[in-house]
Amino acid sequence: MENNLELGKKELNKLLFGNKNFVQGTPNAKNMCLETLKKFAFHQEPYAAVLSCSDSRVVPEIIFDCGIGELFVIRVAGIALGPNVTESIEYAVKKLKVPLLILLGHDDCGVMKYAKEHYPVMTDDFKSIMSAVYPVLDKKEDIKCHNFFAMEHTKWVEKTLIEKSKIVKTAVDNKELLIAKCHFDHSTGLVNLI
C-alpha cells in the first residue's frame, strides 16, 4: 500500500500530465457535469489542494485538466498568506487528508508588480496582501524581475507555512504531505516545478 508521500508524488505527476493535455489542447477531464456533482453532493474527496492566485488567467482546474471533486482550491491575490488562507490549507490537510499541496505562482502577477512599484512603503490600499509579500523583498532587495519575484515568493510561502502551521509541519514531517512549489508560464501554458 502506498504511503501518502508516494501518493502525493503520483498525484503531482497526474496533474503535470493533465497540464500537458491543456497545453496540447487535448483535455480529458470527464467529470465536469451535474452527474459528477451529484456524486459528491454530501462529501468531497479531493486528492490535492492548490493555493493559487486569484488572477483570472490562472484557473487550476483548467490548466491541470481536472473536473469537479478533484482539487481543493484556495485562491487569493498573489498567493498571499493570511490567517484564512492558512486555515483553509490546514483544513485540506487535516480534515480532507490531501497528500499533495501545490503552491501555484505565475507570470505577470499584478501583486508582484504592485509590490515592486511601491516597496518599501506600506500603501493605504492592499495592506494585508503587501504585508504577506514584502518579506521576500526585505530579504532580496536586488529582485528586478517580477516573474522571478513571484517564484521567490512561492518559496517563501512554503517556508512560512511550515514555520507557522503546526498542522502543515506535522504532515510534512510525518511524510503525509508533499508540497510542490510550481510556477505557471503564460507564454507556454506550462506549470513548472521550482
Walk me through the topology:
Layout: H1 4-24, H2 34-39, E1 48-52, H3 60-63, E2 71-75, H4 83-94, E3 100-106, H5 110-118, H6 127-139, H7 146-164, H8 166-173, E4 178-184, E5 191-193
Parallel strand pairs: 1-2, 1-3, 3-4
Antiparallel strand pairs: 4-5
Helix pairs in contact: 5-6, 6-7, 7-8
Structure overview:
This protein has about 190 residues and is of the alpha/beta class. The protein has a single domain, classed as Beta-carbonic Anhydrase, Chain A (3-Layer(aba) Sandwich), CATH 3.40.1050.10. The chain is about 45% helix and about 15% strand. It has eight helices and five strands, in the order ααβαβαβααααββ. A five-stranded mixed sheet has the order 2-1-3-4-5, sandwiched between helices. Helix 3 links the parallel strand 1 and strand 2 (about 70-75). Helix 5 (about 110-120) packs across helix 6, helix 6 (about 125-140) crosses helix 7 (about 145-165) and helix 7 packs across helix 8 (about 165-175). The model has no long low-confidence stretch (mean pLDDT about 95).
Descriptive key words:
8 helices; alpha/beta; 47% helix; Beta-carbonic Anhydrase, Chain A; 5 strands; globular
Offer a concise description of the structure.
The protein has 8 helices and 5 strands, in the order H-H-E-H-E-H-E-H-H-H-H-E-E. The chain is α/β, with parallel strands linked by helices. The longest helix has 21 residues, at 4-24.
CATH class: Alpha Beta
- Which percent range fits the helix content? 40-55%
Give me the oligomer status. single chain
**Helix-strand pattern, N to C?**
HHEHEHEHHHHEE
Q: Beta fraction of the residues?
A: 5-15%
* Integer average pLDDT: 93
- Report the CATH architecture: 3-Layer(aba) Sandwich
Tally of helical runs: 8
Q: Can you identify the CATH superfamily?
A: Carbonic anhydrase
Q: Domains counted in the coordinates: how many?
A: 1
CATH topology: Beta-carbonic Anhydrase, Chain A
The assigned structural class equals alpha/beta
Q: Give the N-terminus to C-terminus distance in angstroms.
A: 29 Å
Poorly predicted ranges:
none
Largest sheet: 5 strands, mixed
User: Measured on Cα atoms, how large is the radius of gyration?
Assistant: 17 Å
Strands, count: 5
**Strand arrangement, major sheet:** 2-1-3-4-5
- Name the overall outline: globular
